[in-house]
Design goal:
The structure is a single chain. The longest helix has 14 residues. 4% of the residues lie in helices and 41% in strands. The strands form eight sheets. A four-stranded antiparallel sheet has the order 1-2-3-4, with no helix packed on it. The chain has a four-stranded antiparallel sheet with strand order 5-6-7-8, with no helix packed on it. It is mostly beta strands. The chain has one domain: YVTN repeat-like/Quinoprotein amine dehydrogenase (Methylamine Dehydrogenase, Chain H), CATH 2.130.10.
Length: 376
């Protein structure tokens, strides 16, 4: 029987609101059971799944057999307290989805470290920084070309040599960076607690443009048809000109936009913690349909065979179709979902709050298998 976490969405939002409003350090672990130990999504390759468990380990699974490809890699925790820890454990909270290449798996930890792990063996290739640690890292890494990028709670965006972990450049924003960057061509996009979305040159980190909102930005931006779409904690979804950052349109929801938007056939799907998914025309922001999901949407959706798949915090997974205005429940996992979804070959992979990986058929909603990662 799957373990059920008691972490309430109200507690999580209250913690985040306190941080945003006061600028205080992220709260410590009391009470420990009220704060999640990470919500890393699954990264899918042709034959393997990679994710950070809530025990602070990098897990590599054979996609067909669900067997470990190598022993779980445990990361050492260097600091006490924090936004992802629990009492009596040294596990590192992992919030970001791993980034995977043909040779390496990249993972960021709340202990302020970036790890590069050999994909075939699970051995550590390099760690950044080499000594000490940065401020906590909440967002995940992204690999593009010969660099790997990630942001930290120190407000800096780091670009490292993907092979060696050597520092290439650092860009400093005016607030914490909790999001995962997005790279399109020669430009990187990242939001910050300073309420700005930045477009940076991937070669040297020099700013191309910046756009200021009225709230912190933690959502990973989406680039689609020469437009950058990004949600903000000011309750707006923004559509910006990719070339110069000028505003094309904005749409106001009823609460924060946390998850990354998704585009399909000229429609932008944007989930909000107000419990709705807004389907908007990509070119002008006009409403196509608003789906009432009945629970906050923190997880980023995926597109599978023309179907938009969305998970809500309460544990239900839905298929949405804006053209028919239909919402179909695929499955109720009865376990909270915060991690971004992943999909491959018609199968949705979900890491739920009970530290369980689920494989769900995207058409029928049948649970193909589930694997509990946490030891008894």
């Amino acid at each position: 029987m799957l373990k059920k976490r008691t972490m309430g969405k109200v507690v999580l939002l209250a913690v985040l609101l306190l941080v945003l409003a006061s600028g205080l350090a992220i709260p410590t672990c009391s009470p420990a059971k009220s704060i999640p130990r990470g919500w890393a999504g699954v990264s899918v390759t042709d034959n393997a799944l990679f994710l950070g468990s809530m025990q602070g380990q990098l897990v590599a699974l054979d996609k067909s057999t669900q067997q470990r490809l190598w022993p779980d890699v445990l990361f050492e925790k260097k600091r006490s307290g924090g936004f992802g820890c629990t009492q009596g454990t040294q596990a590192v909270a992992i919030y970001g989805t791993p980034a995977v290449t043909s040779e390496l798996v990249y993972l960021t930890g709340y202990n302020g470290k970036m790890y590069a792990i050999a994909r075939e063996t699970g051995k550590t290739r390099w760690v950044y920084p080499r000594e000490d640690e940065l401020e906590p890292i909440v967002g995940g890494p992204v690999v593009a070309g010969d660099k790997v990028y990630f942001g930290g709670s120190d407000g800096k965006l780091y670009a490292l040599d993907a092979a060696t972990g050597d520092e290439v450049w650092i860009f400093e924003s005016g607030g914490r960076i909790w999001g995962t960057p997005a790279v399109n061509g020669d430009t990187l996009y990242i939001g910050s607690f300073d309420k700005k979305l930045y477009a940076l040159n991937v070669a040297d980190g020099s700013p191309k443009w910046q756009f200021e909102t009225e709230g912190a930005i933690v959502a990973t931006p989406l680039v689609y048809d020469d437009t950058v779409y990004s949600g903000s904690f000011d309750r707006y979804l923004y559509a910006l000109n990719e070339a110069d950052g000028s505003l094309r349109w904005k749409y106001q929801g009823s609460n924060w936009f946390w998850s990354r938007p998704l585009a399909d056939d000229g429609i932008i799907y944007a989930g909000s913690v107000d419990g709705k998914v807004y389907a908007l025309k990509a070119d002008n922001g006009e409403i196509v349909v608003v789906f009432d999901m009945g629970s906050p949407v923190s997880s980023s959706p995926v597109l599978v065979a023309g179907n938009v798949i969305v998970a809500v915090e309460a544990g239900q997974v839905y298929s949405l179709d804006a053209s028919t205005r239909q919402k179909k429940q695929l499955v109720n996992l009865e376990d909270e979902i915060y991690a971004s979804l992943a999909a491959s070959d018609g199968v949705i992979y979900i890491h739920s709050a009970g530290d369980v990986v689920h494989a769900v058929d995207a058409r029928s909603g049948a649970i193909l298998w589930n694997l509990e990662l946490e030891s008894e």
